Amino acid sequence: MRCGILTVSDRCSSGETEDESGENLENLLKSSTLKPKEVVRHCVSDDKPAIQDALRYFCDELKLELVLTTGGTGFSPRDVTPEATRPMLEKECPGLVIAMLSKSLNVTPLAMLSRPVAGIRNNTLIINFPGSKKASQECLLFVIPSLPHAMDLLSGFPVNHHHPVQLGASHEEHTDLPHSFGCQHHHPSDRKGKASQTSSRKHFTASSHTDESRIAWRPRHSSYPLTPVSQAMSVILANAQTLQTIASTNLHDALGFVLNGDVFSCDPFPPFRASIKDGYAVIASDGVGERDVIAPITAGEQSDVVVKSGSVTCITTGAAVPEGADAVVQVEDTELVESSEDGRVETKVRICRVPTTGQDIRPVGFDISVGEQILAAGDKLGPSELGLLATVGITEVKVYKKPVVAVLSTGDELVSPGGRLSGSQIYDSNRTILLSLLKQEGFPAIDFGISPDTRSDLVDKLTDAMKQADILVTSGGVSMGEKDLLKTVLIEDLSAHVHFGRVFMKPGKPTTFATATIEGKQKLIFSLPGNPVSANVTFSMFVLPALRKVSGYVNPHLTTIKAKLGFDCFLDPRPEYQRVILKYESDNDLPTAMSTGSQCSSRMLSMRNANALLTLPPQTDEITQLARGTIVDAMVIGHI
Fold first, then answer.
1. Which residues contact 387 (CB under 8 A, 6 or more apart)?
2. DSSP 294-322
3. 507 upstream amide cis, omega within 30 of 0
């Protein structure tokens, strides 16, 4: 028998708490006389589509015989496991539910608040259990005696009533294999000779590459469920914690960083009454007429000139308005009456327009008052923000540290540009792409070169990278090929926790996200697909928001805008992120999205000049294409 355990919990799926119920159910099944050949564990949030996707994967793709869910059966608004399960069933099994509830009521009257569902889908028996470790264990104890008979009936095997299932019975040893996003797989050690080996190979659908020599036994289907993009992004951001702060003593060194705290002005700006125009400082009540011009005042000059009725001073923009004056008249509203013989000095002018008190004068603190907040925590420091800090004389600010990113390509077929190609080798473009994207976004990066597809090399490279960097970005080695060893190395050699190993998207389905602790520090690991377009797209969608979150961004996501399709577009069974060029036309408020041609994930020409990724829905029976002119979402990845 092959079993699945689905834990439904927002907190477990985000990594906030451990999945104790799922782990306990797995141990109980393994210790029972059921002796399952395989136990697959998966954890999702309290989200109806996510629950249903996991059930489809267990029942329709892995074709497990038994699936137990734990969590989401209560009265909370987020408890939707029964509602998600019931539409998936071909037959309901109310007897199992009645047995669980009636026996649970003997334990606690609160059992009446549980709403489990049980039933059959594609010859898979699905049973909802409560979320607590204790309650789910009790429910398993209540139903497990009937499971062998139920499994026999579903499989069509002869029914055997003589050996009821017991929990805690002796069981064969199990070997731990990959786990992702709370998804864990276990296979028994083979102790039954050749016949048992044949059976094991038949059911060998979830495996690691622990034994690299047994290529024929590698999995034919990925053991990782397809994770929705939104769920993958939530998991990533939940694990992306901001780094410690550092002090920047030079404003120019702070460019591109994010402030860690609010910034307040210590002084007013301007610190004096400042002239807004080039002209004359006057007394407004003097009105129009001829005036004597006394000593000129220029910006930066300290003057003790006092303006009295009947006189004015020539003044430049930004200069301090002298005592006595209460208005500035611009040059354009005056006429020259008299000057020195050489024309260097004005001695008399005519004011042609009646001034008003305060005209063209910025009072003290007009732009920035004392104690005013000029920047807030979470503000990104660009040229304008740095100029604002300089305006009030601030030279040191606290900012979030930017993460150091290690970039590694994997694959025997890769050669660095400029090297000599042989056989079926190709030049490695992914490191160039990823390192350039990091440089463009202002993140420090370390180039770790290329690792061949051998376990020892991968372990050495990954370990070294994790010691030197905060975040590791790899490309290649995460698909279904016989040399795709990356997930295995992460799990078995680096004790990493793979949160998800596939994403429901195109391109980028094999995208993998993991976390690992080394030298007491948690590291984020993004293992991107090997195709260059996939690596480029998934970096923008997943890695960049994580880098921004770690760097202190309040909103780390890509900017999404509306755009109009400039071409007829056929939809894919998966949500697709097509590369396009957005252009604004004079008669249209929305930009038009123009295709970059063939969207094959190996075709880097599809990224040429692309400045957006169209977010296209998956096709349905009703909708298989979108017509030119359809309004869609577009994630901005470049200048428009």
1. none
2. EEEE-TT-----B--TTEEEEE-TTPBPP
3. yes
489 and 598 fall within a common domain = no
Claim to verify: residue 519 and residue 579 sit in the same structural domain: no
Tell me whether residue 239 is in a domain: no
Which residue type does 557 have? H
Q: What share of the chain is helix, strand, coil (3-state, %, to 5)?
A: 30, 30, 45
**Which residues are registered as beta bridge partners of 375?**
263
- The C-alpha atoms of residue 24 and residue 26 are separated, in whole angstroms, by 5
The stretches of 1-78 forming alpha helices (DSSP H) are 10-13, 20-31, 48-56
Q: Are 530 and 602 in contact (CB under 8 A)?
A: no
b/e 557-596 (16+ beta carbons within 10 angstroms → b): ebeeeebbbbeebebbebbbbbbbbbeeeeeeeebbbbbb
What is the number of domains present in the chain?
5
Please give the structure tokens belonging to residue 106.
């003997």
- The torsion angles phi and psi of 236, rounded to 5 degrees, stand at -60, -50
* Number of Cα atoms under 13 Å in the Cβ half of residue 602: 4
User: What is the extent of the structural domain holding 624?
Assistant: 560-636
Query: DSSP labels for 465-489?
Result: HHHH-SEEEEES--SSSTT--HHHI
Residue 21: inside a domain: yes
CA distances (Å), origin 461, targets 229, 264, 406, 458:
29, 46, 10, 5
Location of structure tokens 């079993």:
3
Does residue 340 sit in the same domain as residue 391? no
| Residues shown for the chain | 640
CA angle 431, 521, 530 (to 5 degrees): 25
Q: What is the pLDDT of residues 97-150, one digit of tens each?
A: 999 999 888 888 888 889 999 999 989 999 999 999 999 999 998 898 888 888
Q: Which residues pair with 185 in a beta bridge?
A: 40
Q: What is the CATH number of the domain that holds 500?
A: 3.40.980.10
- C-alpha count within 13 angstroms, C-beta hemisphere, residue 606: 21
Q: Residue 66: what pLDDT? A: 94
**Is residue 428 domain-shared with residue 343, that is, in the same domain?**
no
What sign results for the dihedral spanned by CA atoms 89, 93, 94, 100?
Answer: negative
Burial (Cβ within 10 Å: 0-12, 13-18, ≥19) of residue 57: buried
pLDDT for res 478: 82
615-634 residue pLDDT tens: 999 999 899 999 999 999 99
